[in-house]
């Protein structure tokens, strides 16, 4: 049986308070263009007490969410289909009241699967025509390749789409994966990693037109890669108001030592030298693996990056902020807020997994903490945003394991959060979706 918790857990509260004292087309991390205050109260008109769940018999996981022009919610992830680990990618669509959006494929559900393989939906973006674009991966060719798909608002496959680009083998050998995607003027930009001839992952940014064709205006090839000599991966992607592309991820410094990396490119694929003169900013805490998981950018170009620094058994969950020139945004609590977590809490790790902004510039992060789904909100100064649930925080605790995975802010002052839970008591994870006023 689920339970809502409208209070700060004691440990989390102390850590967060200590830390704070020291449009149009959408993708995974969105910026609301309406300053309506999100007060952190569950919208009880959405499903049951503000919660909707989706489950099959073998377990289901969610990785990203987005909203179309009608306020319908879309989620992508995957479902396990057998005990061998095979999965089918999925796209779910819900009406604003949490009921299935039956305009989408008649059921509000589309699965994508190649027989005998495993598929994962990792990122989703919606363009102005309400077409959905999904980036993910498939092991159709033994090693994982990137999968790039598009569907009409009625759930049928986008027939204008170049089907030869549905599966992208980005490297010569080994796994390739796509993690996040954004749309701008009918053009898709996505990130992840590809492996070259040395099998080491290289961070990449790919670009395709709305028809699935390579966007040759982007670097002449539709792709740029970055290699720092080790393992580099892109996990989050966002655009600023002028069309510059920002990618956040990780870069290997030495074995078992990574630093956070932010890369910025112009729309032609060249480095954005207005960003730290090189188009790159890094952060290395010095004693941990540092990685960004998501990125969001305000209308005035302020960059917010969510990430984690993992130690042997502990992790530091953080949000860092940068100015458009790549300098640290010291107005945001000196440039960073953080909270200490556990990396191996009963076999699960604490982590911050997604970030979004509202029209007032408040920051929202989706967190897994102490086996609970947690949403934390900060204002522009890096202080807890007390307009959100009175304390800047909301905790969902089903009494078992819960995880915060993705969120997006809507223009009317609504926040959607997606995660996973054992709330029904069985052995498999279910997808849960929460809506806040």
Question: Would you spell out the secondary-structure blueprint of this structure?
Answer:
Layout: E1 3-5, H1 10-21, E2 51-54, E3 60-67, E4 73-80, E5 87-94, E6 109-112, E7 119-126, E8 132-141, E9 143-151, E10 167-168, E11 177-184, E12 187-195, E13 201-209, E14 223-226, E15 232-239, E16 245-254, E17 257-265, E18 280-283, E19 289-297, E20 303-310, E21 314-322, E22 336-342, E23 351-357, E24 363-369, E25 372-378, E26 393-397, E27 402-410, E28 414-421, E29 430-436
Antiparallel strand pairs: 1-26, 2-29, 3-4, 4-5, 5-6, 7-8, 8-9, 9-10, 11-12, 12-13, 13-14, 15-16, 16-17, 17-18, 19-20, 20-21, 21-22, 23-24, 24-25, 25-26, 27-28, 28-29
Short synopsis of the structure:
Helices cover 3% and strands 48% of the residues. The protein has one helix at 10-21, and strands at 3-5, 51-54, 60-67, 73-80, 87-94, 109-112, 119-126, 132-141, 143-151, 167-168, 177-184, 187-195, 201-209, 223-226, 232-239, 245-254, 257-265, 280-283, 289-297, 303-310, 314-322, 336-342, 351-357, 363-369, 372-378, 393-397, 402-410, 414-421, 430-436.
Walk me through what this model shows:
There is one protein chain. 3% of the residues lie in helices and 48% in strands. It has 437 residues and is mostly beta strands. It is globular and about 50 Å long.
Strand order of the largest sheet: 1-26-25-24-23
End-to-end Cα distance, whole Å, is: 23 Å
Helix content: under 10%
Percent strand equals over 45%
- The backbone outline, from C-alpha atoms, is globular
- Tell me the series of helices and strands, N- to C-terminal: EHEEEEEEEEEEEEEEEEEEEEEEEEEEEE
Radius of gyration: 20 Å
Give the biggest sheet: 5 strands, antiparallel
Contiguous runs where pLDDT drops below 50 for at least 5 residues: 1-26
Count every beta strand, where a strand is a DSSP E run of 2 or more residues.
29
